[in-house]
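RECORD TYPE: protein structure
NAME: DNA primase/polymerase bifunctional N-terminal domain-containing protein
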Amino acid sequence: MLADVPAIHTQDEAAEAFSDGRWEIALTTHHFDVLELPARLGAPLHDQLKGTCPTAIVPASRTWQFFVTQGSVPAELAEHAGGRVISGPDGWVPTPSTKIGATKRIRWLIHPSLTRWEPYSRRDAIDMVFETAEWSAYDAPTNPSSAIVDGLLD
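PREDICTED:
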């Protein structure tokens, strides 16, 4: 993965960070997060998302970057998988098309224009149920009705 770097706050810090020509432009993660994963997880996730997530690949580090809504992927989950979440106003990634090394470039696999310039909004079944639930744990049914249970057993 790209080495962790300190936040850049001043023009002098930016000039120093970009002076060796390694990076051309940086995207700050002020309005989105970047989930960066090793290739062994990035490739299957890319396949599962079916083009719904702006995605870049970093060949020098063999990592995949998924541009997601803020807070949608817990940092601990990414770290446990060998990845990281880059987030917040101090976070940044070199933009795709940036040259890394003599011949390698970060490149878009799914360009943001294909997702209407929106980061991926994680929507799995658990998220959808909790977001739409109109009941609290206090008034949730404690015993499912027998009709529901009988229907499941048929």
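COMMENT: The radius of gyration is 20 Å.
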